[in-house]
Specification:
The protein has 240 residues and is of the alpha+beta class. It folds into two domains: 89 residues, Arc Repressor Mutant, subunit A, CATH 1.10.10; 131 residues, 2-Layer Sandwich (Muramoyl-pentapeptide Carboxypeptidase, domain 2). Helices cover 50% and strands 13% of the residues. The radius of gyration is 19 Å and the shape is globular.
Length: 240
Amino acid sequence: MASSSDPDTALRPEEFAAAVAAVTTAFGDPTRRDIYLFVRGSADGVRAAEVADRFELHPNVARHHLEKLASGGYVDVELARHSTAGRPSKRYRVAATDTHLSFPPRRDDLLGTLLARALERLPADEARVLAEQVGYEYGRQVAARMEPAEGHRSVKAAVASVADALTAHGFAAHAEAHGNQLTLVSEHCPFGDAAQRWPHVLCAVDTGMVRGMLEGLYGATHPQLTESRPDGGEHCVTRV
């Protein structure tokens, strides 16, 4: 078994901080940890009302905790159809794998390097378009696991969920509001050094992911985004 001091397993300080941010976002609240264990112990999944009854919470509070877990990829959401008329209810099931709970987290710098090296054989504009499309399609898949129904969230709620999902993917992201503008700030890039060598490709993947998740969570008329780019060399900022 590899030790924590091995170069293949040891985390750099920024990677460790990103891993802690991901776990804290999902499980920093004791009630949310208990809810996750409750969902994990149910073979058929649970509804927000069941969680509310079990933990004596308001249904909106129970739903908030479940959505935080869904944003982090720890639970999946599906629509439960009724035999009677009415809006389908949501059931939350533990995600198929618990890879998010592994430590250290999977590094994406090798895959990022492979993608960037492959796309650099194309003209820069074509490479950027293709990279953003890859990110967009992946972002839509993430949003579908988080929320099957579209178009009912506020922009602010959707952006907060996108920040949680990005954090779970190693970006250590958070949402900020400045007047009427919402901003996603990522304090760590899971693509590692590859993002510094090929920013036009890998930042386009990030932008596509954000666009895809927002469209899936907020609806087809999602807000326009400025492209993700380093802000002062320390952070990556996407303005909504």
